[in-house]
Target: TonB-dependent receptor
Amino acid sequence: MRTTGQLRLALMTSVFITASLCAAPSFAQQADTEQASSVDDIVVTARRREESLKDVPVAVTAVSSERLEQTGAADITTLQQQTPNATVQIARGTNSTLTSFIRGVGQQDPLWGFEPGVGLYVDDVYVARPQGAVLDIFDIERLEVLRGPQGTLYGRNTIGGAIKYVTKRLSQDPELTLKGAYGSYNQVDLIASGSTPLNDTLRIGGAIARYTRDGYGTNLTTGAEHYNKDVTAGRLSVEWTPSDNLFFRLAGDRTTDESNARHGYRLKAPMTDGIYDTRAGIGDDGYVRTRGLSFTGEWNVSDALTFKSVTAWRDGDTAGDGIDFDGLPQPILDIPGYYADSQFTQEFQLLFEGERWQGVAGVFYMDASAEGAFDTVVGLANLTTFTGGKVDTESFAVFADFSYDLTDQLSLSVGGRWTKDKKSVDQLRQNYLGIKSPFFHNLSAIPLGAPLTDYTNSDDYSEFTPRISASYKFTPELTGYASYGRGFKSGGFDMRGDASLYPETINGYQPELVDTYEIGLKGSLLDRRINFATALFKSDYTDQQITSQFFIPPTSVVSFVDNAGSSEIWGWELEASARITDSFVPRLTLGYLDAKFNEFVTFNPLTGKRENMADQRHFQNTPDWTANIALPYSVDLGDRGSVIFTPMASYRGATQMFETPIPLLDQGAYWLYDATLMWTAPDARYRVSLAGRNLSDERYRAGGYNFPAAITGDSVIGFYGAPRTVTLSVTANF
Model:
């Protein structure tokens, strides 16, 4: 029997298709007179060069700044609603740490030293750290989501895909944009961005943003705001174009998030009345700082050859009181923590373009360091387990990708990347008698025996990741493609590993691989009145790095990271828009995934042995269906400007938080409803927008922890998405 969610999904799809087909005759009749109103080509850089979206043999979602504003998007987690088969959300127990999965592949655990499964790029700079990666949307040109492994051009840790945050280049003319917003829970956003030429070749510009909001709930123990926001962010860039063939850009950014610590909601008694409230006693201080500096140079050597260099440095710190896992005033299960990291990257690219061929080749180098520490405080046992360490990573890669037009219709692309990583680790895990360890300021804590883990080690990981695709233009507006690509996520060491219980932890874990086979069709129909992209794919996922955490009395919470799984993932995706009239252009997104473990060999705490538990495990953060429909309708008011109304509905199927089913914690299927009403002045100088998010006030969990033992206080806690909010914003352009 179909669920209510599935019936709504089927109805939504039927309405969209029926409306499009019924309008088809009028499309054909009006084609000659209204060609100018067709949907414009979208240019993306999915293959490290500018190409029309409909011509790229890659599954790409591109969301322009205009669409982001029309849908009331606040940060990059909006991609979860607007991208098929994607999870892009705030990580459990944090305010600005990113959890991302694409097509069932990703990484939920933000611990230092762990690698993400979806790469994040700000322009061409790789961001290795998930902390502070929930980027607010300001001064942006577009967002791109590349689905499927991108191991050839984007390299390691893009095994599920890549997210690109593309900022604007500075204008040749002076510009200034001021934006203010006020909304629910006393939300206040203030954003200023602009640029000015200093002379004919030199421009300077920047943006600064201040975001504040009261909490959705309250810490009933301390009285502090809970789920609040306190963020300051800024960017500054200088661009120099000394000649038509040379371009240089120096850019810096900094973000400071001082929002209160987020502790979650108890799903077992004693519970609070509100899901955004807590009785946590660990404290409310939170602090995340990220900053970066990049230098980009481009030299157009000739019409056929461009040389590009991207040099970047980034670092970040995370501190504060940590997460209260039990959600109660007593220190039953508290986790104070600290993280820090830094990275230097250098990439050189050569871009080639001829009459029938184009491509890119290059080298990439990264030198990164990540460190951290946390206490696991089990207050009922008066026991604390300290875990701390550092991981250094050195990565080198060479890559190339070339496309050749065999005929005017048939093109072939071949690419490959060889990557070598070296990781060095230093880890310590020690039990103490007392509440907190000396590292977290309890100097009277007493060590209990020898360290559980105390080792240094290093390992190398290398892999060749090829990609091949063929595309065929059935018409100038319709392209089909078939592709094969491999993704590679680096191996590493479990920074929670307990060698006293699991001696193999000091050997680390090996890389994981995804081989994806895909066929797709994209382009336009009916004189570009209907635009669409659809893809069918199969992924073979091997050596999956699975993190399992258990409480084994009387020690502490222990972790096991194994190359436990191999699996098979089938999926289908559709993105479409139809110009029913010049004023009404609905958009539809659909995604379907069937992901199953073939093998899942891991430690069974009930038997104390390693067993294949594939029949008891399922993919986390991977709903079977995802969908989105937006129905923007615009009205031209003549000399009074224009108005566009954009209602939007998003569907997400049932989701498990972890590979093991936890009925109390796992999230069922749900819908979210948003709407934005936006007025723009005739000269586009002023804009007023009223945006409503989660209008049905849906309560849905986006993450959680599960430690249900009595000694840990029956700590099953959930973290929830935002409630219903309404925001009024005013933008002025000068």
Observations:
- The CA atoms of residues 630 and 648 lie 4 Å apart.
- Helices lie at 4-22, 24-30, 65-70, 79-82.
